[in-house]
Amino acid sequence: MVLITLQYVPIRFDVAFLNIKEDVIKFKHYQIAFFSHVYTSIFVLITGITQFSTSVRNYVPKLHKNLGKIYIVLVLCIASPSGLIMAVYANGGVFSKISFSIQAILWFIFTYKAYAYIKQKNWINHQKFMMRSYALTLSAVSLRLFKWIIVSTIQLPPMDTYKIVSWLGWGFNILLVELYFLNKKR
Predict the structure, then answer these.
(1) Domain total for the chain?
(2) What pLDDT does residue 122 have?
(3) Which of 31, 114, 122, 169 is spaced 20 to 30 Å from 160 by Cα?
(4) Which residue range(s) make up the domain with 164?
(5) CA 53, CA 135: separation in Å to the nearest integer?
(6) Residue 143 CB: number of other CB atoms within 10 A?
């Protein structure tokens, strides 16, 4: 993900993903959404993963709390809203646009609920919604993994692959989290 982000530093419109977004990159609101989404992604991934470390939580609780605040602010104020704007212009037609829109909205809701539950000192529900939120954060990674698997095995046309991974990237992650909760309940 770092290498993907670095392609766009400094701001460039002629690299990677943006090469196929020529029709929308001319819009200022899309530029702001895209670059804010891409530039915050690394911080969201890093601050989010630290939240699951019992060592950080138990031995450096202030760090856990501060990194959690950064994660929540980045997701609620930048990553999710910019993701929703990008979803409106997603490749793959309405099928992909709906997927990415649902993902952005769920990401906001899950992260907000995690925040609301921690304010109520409801640790169990806070943890559950943080896991759901981070599952959606990790969709940036799983989408690329599924794309690689499909391209190297089935070899579908690029847009068909994109339509599939637009759902698989986040749907699979949420399914894993929900199965984890069901198994833990048993």
Answers:
(1) 1
(2) 97
(3) 31
(4) 2-185
(5) 15
(6) 21
Extract the tokens encoding 132: 């759901």
pLDDT, tens digit, for every residue of 91-128?
888 999 999 999 999 999 999 999 999 999 999 999 99
Between CA 185 and CA 131 the distance in angstroms is 15
Which of 26-30, 64-68, 73-77, 79-83 has the least mean pLDDT? 26-30
Task: Tell me the Ramachandran region of residue 94: left when phi exceeds 0, alpha when psi lies from -120 to 50, beta otherwise.
Answer: alpha
What mean pLDDT do residues 129-140 have? 96
What is the secondary structure of the chain as a DSSP string?
Answer: -HHHHHTTSS--SSSGGGGG-TTTTTSHHHHHHHHHHHHHHHHHHHHHHHTT-HHHHHH-HHHHHHHHHHHHHHIIIIIHHHHHHHHHT-TTHHHHHHHHHHHHHHHHHHHHHHHHHHHTT-HHHHHHHHHHHHHHHTHHHHHHHHHHHHHHHT---HHHHHHHHHHHHHHHHHHHHHHHHHHHH-
